[in-house]
Specification:
The chain has about 325 residues and is mainly alpha-helical. Helices cover about 60% and strands about 5% of the residues. It has a two-stranded parallel ribbon. It has a two-stranded antiparallel ribbon with strand order 3-4. It is globular. The protein starts with a helix and ends in a 5-residue tail after the last helix.
């Protein structure tokens, strides 16, 4: 065997009971053990301070010389469970802020930057915390909001838009045609009324019954964290998010029957962008801007009033002990 004489150079005896199989692993392990045990190569113990190792000292020295606005990558393994939990909660706060002030449904490329910026903002002492587990937990924050909106819309959409027909009538063709109509020219954002044995839509946008109910029930009565970031009574991002939820829910019936769609950015991004473009155009017109602003203020006032009433009713039924 070619490697066995090399083992005997260091005076290492053959281990008893080891078969002469010639496997490389049997030969390579003793060689490493002999080199590690040589007295001429000092091996630091686990308790040895990092500063005693020249390489670590160099890294530490260079880290101290970083500019004040630089970030140092660390892991959350150094944090306690409570501090890690607080870090995640604070990062969620910044994600919700981004959804209300920047984009409620960002592109796939921008999503990663938003999450990392949220972690950086939540981390103290100007340190950037990178941990796959934390990133994974934060990556579902936006999807959870979309799923909440979709689930609410799905419960009411057939009744609010007249998709359900009386028993004995064929619904598939009716749903297919009606959904196609609602998804054209933003008809689903308009109030739909049943007159003269048929459904008609009124011209004003964002007046649909389900749209108003979704915004008030899901966000105000649910006291969603997004509400903490409303600025100047502006609900543009919230409007586009709610509209996208209704659009996707209707699209699940486009074949005449229900087919569930994922809450992925790829599916929700398109209707969101369309509605945001629509809102942007409205904001360019002073008259339409005044109408949109008034509508949003009325929804905010109604939502907060209903929440106060619900809290008072709950307090009467379940009084808080002093």
């Amino acid at each position: 065997m070619p490697n066995r004489p090399a083992m005997q150079i260091f005076g290492q005896p053959e281990a008893p009971g080891v078969a002469r199989t010639g496997e490389p692993s049997v030969v390579s392990r003793p060689q490493r053990e002999v080199r590690a045990a040589m007295p001429s190569i000092p091996q630091p113990s686990a308790a040895t301070p990092v500063t005693t190792v020249p390489q670590a000292s160099t890294v530490e020295s260079s880290a101290r010389q970083l500019p004040a606005d630089s970030t140092v990558a660390v892991t959350t393994s150094n944090l306690t469970r409570s501090k890690k939990r607080k870090l995640v909660d604070d990062a969620k706060y910044y994600i919700y802020s981004s959804m209300m002030t920047q984009e409620a449904i960002p592109s796939s490329n921008a999503k990663g930057s938003i999450i990392q910026n949220a972690i950086n903002s939540a981390a103290r002492d100007n340190m950037s915390v990178t941990n796959p587990k934390i990133n994974g937990e934060l990556s579902v924050v936006m999807a959870t909001v979309r799923r909440l909106c979709r689930d609410y819309a799905l419960c009411c959409i057939q009744h609010c838009y007249g998709l359900r027909l009386p028993l004995g009538q064929l619904e598939i063709e009716h749903k297919r045609e009606h959904v196609a109509h609602l998804l054209t020219n933003h008809e689903y954002l308009k109030k739909t009324v049943f007159e003269n044995n048929r459904w008609t839509t009124q011209p004003e946008l964002f007046r649909a019954e389900l749209f108003e109910d979704l915004v008030i029930d899901v966000f105000f009565l649910h006291n969603h964290p997004l509400l903490q970031h409303i600025q100047a009574d502006n609900l543009d991002q919230l409007f586009a998010l709610a509209a996208a939820a209704i659009y996707v829910s209707l699209k699940e019936f486009k074949e005449g029957y229900y087919t569930e769609l994922p809450v992925s950015l790829e599916i929700w991004r398109e209707p969101y962008v369309e509605v945001m473009a629509l809102i942007t155009d409205m904001r360019k017109d002073p008259e339409k801007t005044a109408q949109l602003t008034l509508l949003q203020q009325q929804m905010i006032e109604k939502g907060r009033s209903l929440r106060r009433s619900s809290q008072a009713a709950l307090s009467a039924v379940f009084p808080v002990a002093n």
